[in-house]
Design goal:
By secondary structure, this protein is α+β, with helices and mostly antiparallel strands. 55% of the residues lie in helices and 15% in strands.
Amino acid sequence: MAAEAGYEALASKEPEAKPVPYVEVPLEPKPVVVVPAARRCQIRRFCCCLSLATGVRLMAILDFLAGLAGVVVCGLIVFCRTHEAKLDHVVTDGLEHLWGNSTNATLKIAETVAKVNHGVDLAAKALPLMLLAAVIHFYFARVGTRAADGKVKEALLYYYWRAAQFGVSLFSMCFSHIVLAGYAAVVCRSHWLELTKDDLPLHVAVVTTTTTTNKPSPTKTVDAETSPRQGPRRNPLLLKGRTLPLYLDDDDDGSTTM
């Protein structure tokens, strides 16, 4: 009985619980901010005044004109190869009228005619490749036209075509050619990205707002007799004017040991 009275006296002298900081978690959904994925090498306008689709269409027209020019050149090569004798006669008459009929002039005319015939022969050998280049330009002119109409697959293919031309221009060692080819590739890439802006991945950022306040933690009264056993209980005992922490544990038979 005396021990129980001492426990009650000590319990009455326990200090009040201090406020414990805690974090309030809101129950409403967290705000979500959707940020578009970063895009590189992209412009909004073509030549600062035209739309990207118009720029792609103009480049497709240039491809068509390049293919048409290739066909015309191939036709001229075939005509010169099939009318080589008439070509020699025209060149000879023109140079005689310019240089005269002297011996030195005759030798120069013969040398010039031989060079012209050699050039025609070389062009005739390269004729299949020139025809192939003309067909490729015609094909990509059609691809560029469909890309300008809003076809995503054709827009990507036409971007690859212009990027390949930019890569070839690097070997030309011509600064203006490199700049124009690079700008055309950027325009085609921007047009393709504009068509696929809804399919690009998005970066989702979750914004959380938390507030920290000082609020006393709720206290709960537990009955020592009815509460389940959760391990040894720490109980202070007042011995000779000093408070010593002792541990009391209940044995299986109900007795208390120190």
